[in-house]
Amino acid sequence: MRFSILSFGCQMNAADSLWLAQALTSMGWVESPREEAQVYILNTCSVREKPEQKVYTALGRLQQLNPDGFAAVGGCVSQQVGDGLLERFPFVRLVFGTDQVGAAPGALARLVEHPSLKISLLDFEERYPEREPAVTAAPGRPSAFVTIMQGCDNFCAYCIVPYTRGRQKSRDPGLVLDECRRLVAGGARELFLLGQNVNSYGLDASGAGVGFAELLRRVARTPGVERVRFTTSHPKDLDDATIRAMAEEPAVCPQLHLPMQAGSDAVLRRMGRVYNRTQYLDLAAKVQQARPGVALTTDIIVGFPGETEQDFQQTLEAVEQVGFEGSFSFCYSDRPGTAATALPDKVNREIQLDRLWRLQKLQDVLTRKVLEDQVGRETVLLLEGKSRKQDSEESFWRGRDPHGRVVNLALPPGKDGSGKLVKVKITHAKNHSLTGERIGELW
Ligand code: 5AD
Ligand code: SF4
Fold it and tell me: How many domains does the chain have?
C-alpha cells in the first residue's frame, strides 16, 4: 500500500509521525507523494484556533484528490472529536487517540483487508504505551526524537493538552536508554527528548524512581551521543539538579525552551501557572549563570482573558529583560472544556493582534541582536542536509550549532556532509539564520 502522512502541531506529533512511517514501511507499505497515496494519515493538533476546521478542510481536499483512498485521523483532534469523525466523513475509516499510535499500523492493515470495516481506538492508557521497539531507529538521521513521557497533569487554564493527551505517563528509563542506544547504532548523534512537561519525568505512577536530571545525565553519557536537547520544560518543575546537569554534562546542549506565557503576576495566576514573574526571571537568570551563553526561547500567550495593557507591558518588559533568543507567541483562543473559557473579560481580536504584533517586533530585534553577536565566532555544526539553495560551484548545507541556531554553509560539490560535524566560523547574520564558513574537516 502507498501511504502519505500529514503531520500538524508539536514535535510529539512529528515524532509519532516518524514512528508511523517506519512502522508502515516495515510492513512493506511505501511512503508516497500525496497524489499517489492510497491511505492518508493525518496526525492532528488542537492546541490553538480552528484546529478541527483545518482537519476537515484537509480531509475534503484529500478525498477530492483520491476518492478511492481512505484516511486515518490521529492526534489531539481525533481524541477530542472522537467517533464523530467516522460518522461525519465516510472517507475516514480509522480514528486513533494519542495513546494508541502503536496500535494504528495493525488497524490500518485490517482496514485494507476488510473494506467495509471502520475502527476507533480512543482509549487512554494507565501507563506509557510502549510501541514496537524494532522500528524506533531512524537509520541515517543525525538527529532523532525520543519520547520520554506522554500527557500532562498541570491543567493550565487555557490548555487542552491534559484532555487530549491524558494524564502524565513517564516511560521506563531503561527502555528510554535502550531506544537511545538503538538510535545511536542507527547513526543518530543528537537526541531530542520529548514530553509535554519533561521536568516532571518520573513523578507519576509510571515513574521508576529516576527523575529528569538523572535521565538526562544517563542519556548524555550514552556512548556515541554528541548532543542532547529536550523540550518542553515547565518553570515550576525545572529544578537545580537539572540545571546542574545542563552545566556539567558537555553533551547537553546550551539551549532551553522555557515557556513563560505571560509577564504579569495577575495573568500568570489566572493561567494557573504556579509561578510569578519574579520567580520566572530568577530562574532564567540562574540558567544563564549556570550555562553562560545558553539560548533561551519561550512561548507567550497574548490577550489572555482580563489581560490589560499594563499586564501586556509587563510581558514586553520581561521578554526584554531575559533577552529571549526566540519566542513563539500566540493570541489566546478558547479551547473547549478548559477553565479559561469560563473567564470574564475576553480580549477582543484587534487588541490581541496588536499586542501580538508588538511582541513579535520586539522579538525580531532581540533575535537579530543575538544572531549578529555570533558573527566572527567559531562553533561546531551538526549538518542535517542540503539547503534548498544550490548552485553549480558549491553545494549548500544546513546545520545547527549547539544552541540550536540554523547555520548555512557551503561545501565543495560532491562532499557529503549529512550527519557530519564540522567546525565553522560565522560570517553572516540574517533575520532568522546564520551563514558560516568551514574551518575544519568533517567528522
Ligand atoms: N490559546 C493560545 N495559545 C495556547 N497555547 C496553548 N493553549 C493555547 C490557547 N488556548 C500555547 C502555549 C503553549 C503552546 C504550545 O501553545 O503558549 O506553550
Ligand atoms: Fe498545557 Fe500547561 Fe501542560 Fe503545557 S504544562 S501541556 S501548557 S497544561
Answer: 3
> Which grid coordinates belong to 39?
491511505
Residues 331 and 418 in one domain: no
**Residue 138 confidence class, pLDDT cut points 50, 70, 90:** low
- Residue 228 has φ and ψ, to the nearest 5°, of -130, 130
pLDDT digits (tens, 9 = 90+) for 168-193: 999 999 999 999 999 999 899 999 99
Sheet holding 30-31, edge to edge: 30-31, 2-7, 39-44, 70-75, 92-96, 119-121
Q: Which is more confidently placed, 435 or 128?
A: 435
Side chain identity at residue 348, one-letter code = N
User: Are 192 and 112 part of one and the same domain?
Assistant: no
pLDDT score for 136: 63
Binding-site residues, ligand 1, Cβ < 6 A: 47-48, 158-159, 259, 261, 299, 301, 330, 332-333, 335
Q: What is the pLDDT of residue 137?
A: 57
Q: Is 156 in the pocket of ligand 2 (CB under 6 A)?
A: yes
Please state the pTM of the whole predicted model: 0.92
> Do both 184 and 287 map to the same domain?
yes
168 CA → ligand 2 middle, Å:
11
Q: What is the pLDDT of residue 392?
A: 67
Distance from Cα 97 to the centre of ligand 1, integer Å: 20
In the block, cell 530585534 appears at: 365
Query: Which of 33, 30, 100 is closest to 72 using CA atoms?
Result: 100
Question: How far, rounded to the nearest angstrom, does the alpha carbon of residue 64 sit from its chain's CA centroid?
Answer: 31
Does residue 6 sit in the same domain as residue 70?
A: yes
